Known about the structure:
293 residues; Cytochrome Bc1 Complex, Chain D, domain 2; 3 domains; 11 helices; 3% strand
Amino acid sequence: MAVGERDKISGQMTTGHEWNGIKELNTPVPRPVYFFLITMGGFAILWTVLMPSWPGINGYFRGLLGADQQAAVIQSVEAAQLERASWTSRIDSEDFAAIQADEELMTIVRQTGAALFGDNCAGCHGARAQGGPGFPNLAAAPIMWGDDPEIVAETIRVGINATSAETRFAQMLAFGRDQMLERADIDAVVAYVETLSKPDLVATTDPAVLARGAELFATNCAGCHGENAQGMTDTGAPNLTDGYWTYGGDHASIRHSVYNGRTGTMPSWEGRLSPTEIKLLTLYVLDLRAAQQ
Ligand code: HEC
Ligand code: HEC
């Protein structure tokens, strides 16, 4: 075997091998690489000894330090459940007025309620319960079914025009489509209803039409919407004087409501939400309303 010689160009030793005049430089692996490999290898061995590592038949090697992240997770989940159980049991057992008076519980209601509302209700009622076309504003509009907490909780539980056997039922009749009123009478009652929330329109509307509209309202509408059109919680018919509209307060929308009727569907939540969650949402919605007032 030929002995290595110094390469004239690079100044490095060759290995001494030669193939048709081509020689190979002797370039050993640099020391830092050995250092790196040895430290990392050492660390790896040390770590498998200290920490849970090798699988066995009936378990695994648990490591000399006894570290167990699963136990840590279980412990923190248990702690959270314990805390949750303590406030959910208070929400379950205390009555609405007591919870509303308790700032600490109401802070939980606001946080948990916002998440529950976002997941289940915001799709229809809007992120801040402000409503949208076809869906009532729950935060500010006068309530249709009553704002007693027990009533609101019941509305959420059974729904409106929903599939639950106990559902609330509310229907705006189709006075035009079902030929209960003549076209001219529909125009008159719509004109009258429009002036209830926009008094400025009285000056520009034919007094005879308004008088006819008022008369028609008393005979056809007051039974559900109330004598003064301010809504009736017994029928779930909304207030028509307040400027809040589920379906729109312009002439065309009101006319559409009166001509074709309206039957909004609020799902029933019993079975999908727990009684505690329904109670939380009731408190949350009423709290939003209180904040708007
Ligand atoms: C699929 C759409 C939809 C979803 C989802 C929905 N609602 Fe409703 N909700 C409605 C409609 C529509 C009405 C009005 C029905 C009517 O006008 O007859 C209503 C009415 C209500 C009312 C009665 C308001 C009043 O004036 O008396 C309450 C309270 C209510 N919703 C709360 C909730 C809560 C809380 C949730 C979430 C758990 C929710 N809703 C989810 C559509 C929805
Ligand atoms: C059988 C009871 C009943 C009668 C009678 C009735 N309404 Fe209604 N009306 C309702 C209910 C319930 C609603 C809410 C429907 C919904 O939200 O789905 C409603 C909704 C409306 C709306 C839509 C309100 C909004 O917020 O967009 C208008 C407008 C209206 N009614 C006008 C009238 C007029 C005018 C008459 C008489 C010609 C009349 N209603 C007769 C029950 C009735």
